[in-house]
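help with this:

***
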Amino acid sequence: MNNIRELFSSQPKEFADLKLLRQPDDLEVIKWAAKNHFICFCVAMQPGWIPTRFHVALADKLQKAYENLVNGVDGRLIIEAPPQHGKLCSHSTRVLTTFGWTTHGKLKVGDFVFGRDGKPKKVIALSEESMSEYDIAFTDGQTIQCHGNHEWVIWNRDKKKEEIVETKWLASKKLDAGPDVGRGHRWRYLVDSNVGVELPKVELSLHPYVLGAWLGDGQSSGSILYAGDGDNETIEKCLEYFEVSSHQQHKITKVHSFYFSGLLKKLQQLNLINNKHIPDQYLISSKEQRLELLAGLIDTDGYVYHKNGRITFSNTNKRLIEDVRRLVVSLGWKVTVCEFEPIVSTSGIKGKQVVYQLCFQPTYKIPVAIPRKKLVNFQPEIRRRGIVSVKRAKKPELGRCIQVEGGIYLVGETLIPTHNSTIVSEFFPAWILGKQDWPVICASYGMSLAEKKSENTRNVVSSEIYQYIFPKTRLNPDSTSKEYWQTSTRGSYKAVGRGGGLTGNPGKVLIADDLIADKDEANSEVIREGAWDWWNTVFYTRKQENSLIILVETRWHLDDPAGKLEEQERKNIEAGKLKGTYDEWEKLTFAAIAEQDEYIDGKLFRKAGEPLAPERFSLSSLMKTKNAYSATNKIGDWAALYMQQPIIAENAEFRKEWFRYYDPEILKDKRLYYTTTVDLAISQKKSADNTVVMTVAKEVDGPNWYIVDITAGKMDNIQTVDAIFWHYEKYRSKIYIEALGYQASLQYSVLAEQRKRNIFFSVEDLKIKTTSKKEERIRGLVYLYKAGVIFHRKGICEQLELEEMQFPKGRHDDHPDALSMHLGIVRQAPRENPEEDTHQDGRLNWKRKPKVDPNFDPNKAFDRV
């Protein structure tokens, strides 16, 4: 068990600070730590993995929920988190998608890459850019540049088991396991063999076999197809799709030249004349269509070795060789490419160009037409690819990580599997089953994903390390399917997709991991309502009397299952129902950037403005990501994906298309009346709204409003007063504060500060009817937005827009409320435009041209606390 000792003794100081492992060389202590502390168990099951504070907090919350359940206390937990942090490939890494080959840096949300099973997987999230650190090389010649935290699915030859490891862990290991008799080196860590990708049939303008035959032996500048004497089968197959307009035979070489009518036009449409290559649409066609293309290539320029089943394809066109290599790789076969000096062809003609030769060994039939090229005996052995080296990158590149459905996706020209992971739906059930005989139910939006998570959990339970930690727990050999399996201690795991049945399967622990797949599903009311109905009629009804229910989501919509559960609980509270008669959900929201100081179980988790995992994604890099979303008018996607603040687009009371913007330069020549409102938060508690100080400029002789400045945040009395003075000194605006008890007291602080600064201005009471609900006031803005008379200043109104688009179900509405306070004020705008300051009752009322104090910095105004 030296491997277990190595796992814990190699952990850095950050992990040691958990104070769970005081004696890392003592195997019994290691065993105890992993058995009794879930975070330690996660580290044990992922060699080289370093937990961030996010992982530690999440694992701690899950462990407490488990301990409460042991003591008979139900648990209801909603976990909202952004895309996972820490799997990064360089931008230049080649990736196969359903629309063709591209690079990792060009991927975007909604694209489809390919999973380990060869099936398309949707990209559901992107990280910000960061630098790659390592070059990792494989036995098939592929080298991929990636981050040290990038995860790989490997086969550990020493342990004879599959693991998920990080690149930096591999970099610290000896990779060469010694010589393999007859095969060269044995590599200690291996990845999957290549996998054939599955794609639907597509409409192709030219039959793929004809294209393959022309690429192999066609005239580059025309519609002639050459064929050796006796190879009539190729021509006969092409005749199924085109007619031969003329035919000639060379007197010496005996090579036949067939002119196909109509072929030239097709080749021109595909941009192939004097430009031989495989068009992208053929590389992303169905398996049958790709095999037909390959058959045409083999019948013309291929050679079959019947003794060992290998096939070679030769050509002088390097680009074509690269395209054929991609074609063969997409079918799941390993490829090698060599180059040779010019040789004499079978027709007796000596070449003048370098010849490239591509070799591969098929594992299933290719529909060639020439009898001598048909393979009868196959050698379907599929060998894994070894990891040859992991070195520091000589030329590090920018890169980013993607999150895909199912976690694993293929990268590189030879389709190598790389991984995204989760600890909630895989490691947590395994840990529980090692300690209890409970039935566990895990659900996802699709059965295939649910079964994959089940398989991963089952692999954890059957691993050597797990069985050392939990020696009594084994898989029951009589029940080991992906959908349902049991342990030797009578625990069980049931996987189910959204909409599936659970009759006869009660659950002590029920985990729903992403019942809504992506933004497209979230925007479908039919899918949302179907998921909610399934939750209530199937999933929720399977809970035992004492149970733990966990919902894990990335928030895409306010009316997703998490939103509906929150709304349901709110209505129960408003109805005055007694506690204990309804579910009380504990919500654990991990935003990419903290909006305010965050506390978990009364302890400070992070301060306002801090990123979730700064060691992986810094604040500056996250802000770049946010700005990228904002620049493409997708700030709502940022809010949902990274901040867990979804927008309810289809029935929002405020519409995104209503937002209009202005250039600040246009204000110089306008007659404007400036007003500033103060919407004071009741408290500085983490659940309270922000204090918002907002200045609006209203046209004196026109209908338009211009939002010119906003200061917002968790501000105490001193900070709020500073913000009021800053707005006044910059815009000479009239100040309005709501005339309520706790807000009216702010006026006394402002008056006292005026005497200290010797700056005097009026502070007006903003009288709002106590019978008027805040929601009704905010709705009063709708007609102004519809009329197009409210203009936003770019760069300061993002939070206002977000809260408006989430209204009335959003988490906050303090920005729209501050704006709505101006509704009654702007009617008081003067009808004249004086050049000098005007006064009323001895107090400054309004000035046309605002003055700015160059020494007053609004950001520094908050440093006094």
